[in-house]
Design a protein that fits this description.
Two copies of one chain form a homodimer. By secondary structure, the first copy, chain A, is α+β, with helices and mostly antiparallel strands. Helices cover about 35% and strands about 25% of the residues of chain A. In chain A, the strands form two sheets. In chain A, strands 1, 2, 3, 4, 5, 6, 7 and 8 form an eight-stranded mixed sheet that branches. Chain A has a six-stranded mixed sheet with strand order 12-11-10-13-9-14.
């Protein structure tokens, strides 16, 4: 685990037993920023967005945040007016205890949809959370937000800027319901750099587009997806174009690292495969084709079996809606050439392709031969383990 | 097995060992119509359509067909120019042997994508197929077209029309790659009624829209999907509106029966679930929502476990793109009310919902509360067995 401490931020976690299982796992966390952070966020596009997402979406408009309250085990989604009341009440109480304006307390929830939070128990746990805030608390916090994840996802980077050194650290959760547009994922990224909220907003939107939006485990977009970027401002400012570029690159790096950690921890997943489409009529077409391949059950089961059943790749491209034709498509599995302009490559050895597919991480390259559009999506294999996990999730 | 014989049609089948496995299974079939049938067809929209689909699509434009040659075990797709040459040569040879104009011989293939047909062996088998044609041959034929199917899909209906009795019989295959727009499926429907090709075309298009297009097993649209409707014309004509209605109803019935048989035989499938969306802003929105739910991996694994984890249904509606909101959605699992206008139904018992979900066949009803649009889609559970079948399909 990296050292995740970022000047200006403290964090803590506690086991509230949100699911009522008595397993003693950490399942509620708190992050406090002193002084108030500049803040930006990106949220699920799911129209059934959960109560905490509705609250975050509205409150983030001020560009300021003082605390983030997070729980796992319960998504507080499809809980009607009662669920909204619960979330507002918890934020208000946290604001009172931390001396933070209520509307600067954000909340995120992840877990099962459709049940009410144990709000009384959670409210009683707030004093423990405030009493135990520490600059090193992000490690505990990163474990409190997990659901079916098998491990925490964290990363940090130090940047040398014109007026001093800045730090970006991130923690994330997510393992299933990982989808085209974001995922059932929460990610929290912190920096001590002094950056106005409007600029944070631009930067996080760009980073999310290059990372969390380009991963897929099962194609389901969750009701609770949230990425928050907070800047405490106790560190350096971004003084020129070069600082801004360096910061954006650092942010991209952290988001991509967290996104890749999410895919690699996908439920029942044994490998991470990059689907790279090039030669598409335009980037949007490349995106269509790459997502269709990356989400095809038949492709994903073939990946699990390390079976170079490449016809399934071709079929997925064919129904993706991207301009494509049987005479122009070319295909590589790792460095093994399979198809060239629709004709089988002479000397193609299925064994060689199968060998590539036994690796933990490799790339499938599909050239549509139509133009210069391109897109890459990270996907996973689909194993019997995935089905088992998702059949038994609540039992 | 129903009696499938239809006046004017004969059929046969043979084991050619297309996959080279020596299992002795029937894998090549022939249907001949004497005299020439009026014909119409509906084909995959996949841009990587297989060679036989390209041939069928062009030849069906004449509205006439004399024979259909079918093989399983190999899709003859992504086979370049060589694959097209193979298909054309087999049709030509069949035409010569059956004294049928070459352009009235149709061909359909289903199976693994990317390998060439054993065309020499298939050509040699043609004489056996022609020698063994029989009015009762459709039963054998229905077995020769299967791939991962566990059983043949057939149905027949007799209709009393104004000028006499007519018959409609159908055979189909399909178990995986069953998708939003048609499926990896072949269906052949025969009648002795005397109906012009243009009218057959209208009728089969309507029937496919109500049946094969509304089933999903895994969301993959295949490269080889084909539905053909042939009318020998040795039976009665459709004399008035009442005859036409009766015939259309009979055709709908056969297509729906075959479609439901395909879903019920979905790979690894234990149950068939109807997803009925109503109260949508319009029918197109209902379709979006129903398909999103019907194709969600998380929904399908919950169906497998008989787990009323209904939050997954709500989440899928939310990302479907259909107009919907958390305050208006209502939900029933069978006759168990779960959600009313976004609020949990009082007295809802999870055990009761779980009991419904243990049935082989039930309906989930989702009311969006936005308008009068509706759509129903048949889907299946997703089991570990599905993953096993599709990981091991070629091995």
């Amino acid at each position: 685990m990296d050292n995740l401490a970022v000047p200006g931020f403290t964090a803590s976690a506690v086991a509230v037993d949100i699911k009522g299982k008595g397993d003693g796992n950490l399942d509620m966390g708190l992050i406090v920023c002193e002084p108030r952070a500049a803040a930006a966020g990106v949220f699920t596009k799911n129209s059934m967005a959960a109560a905490p997402v509705l609250i975050c979406r509205e409150r983030i408009l001020s560009g300021r945040a003082g605390a983030i309250l997070v729980n796992s085990g319960n998504a507080n989604c499809s809980t009607g007016e009662g669920g909204m009341t619960d979330a507002i009440r918890l934020c208000r109480r946290a604001g009172e205890m931390g001396n933070i304006p209520e509307e600067e307390v954000l909340m995120c929830s992840t877990g099962v949809i459709g049940g009410r939070l144990p709000a009384d128990r959670m409210e009683r746990a707030l004093s423990h959370l405030f009493d135990n805030l520490s600059p090193d608390g992000l490690e505990q916090f990163s474990r409190a937000i997990l659901t079916t994840d098998t491990r925490p996802k964290t990363d940090a980077v130090d940047l040398v800027l014109g007026s001093g050194e800045a730090r970006i650290a991130g923690v994330a959760k997510g393992a299933g319901m990982i989808a085209p547009n974001m995922a059932t994922m929460l990610a929290f990224v912190f920096t001590d750099a002094r950056i106005p909220a409007a600029q944070l907003n631009e930067m996080i939107t760009e980073s999310v587009g290059r990372s969390f939006n380009n991963i897929t485990v099962d194609g389901d977009t969750s009701t609770n997806d949230t990425v928050l970027l907070l800047a405490s401002g106790v560190g350096p400012t971004l003084d020129d174009e070069s600082d801004r570029t360096r910061f954006q690159q650092g942010l991209n790096e952290i988001c991509s690292s967290l996104a890749e950690q999410i895919v690699a921890d996908g439920e029942g997943t044994k490998k991470v495969v990059q689907i790279s489409v090039l030669g598409a009529a335009d980037d949007a077409d490349a995106d269509l084709a790459a997502r269709a391949v990356a989400q095809s059950l038949l492709v994903k089961t073939a990946l699990a079996a390390a079976d170079p059943n490449w016809g399934r790749l071709v079929a997925a491209v064919g129904y993706s809606g991207a301009l494509s034709s049987p005479e122009k498509i070319s295909l590589n599995i790792g460095d093994v050439a399979v198809l060239r302009n629709g004709e089988p490559v002479e000397g193609y050895e299925e064994m060689a392709a199968s060998e590539v597919m036994r690796r933990d991480r490799y790339t499938i390259e599909i050239d549509l031969g139509e133009g210069t559009g391109q897109q890459s999506i990270l996907t996973t294999d689909l194993t019997e383990e995935y089905v088992r996990i998702n059949s038994e999730y609540r039992t």
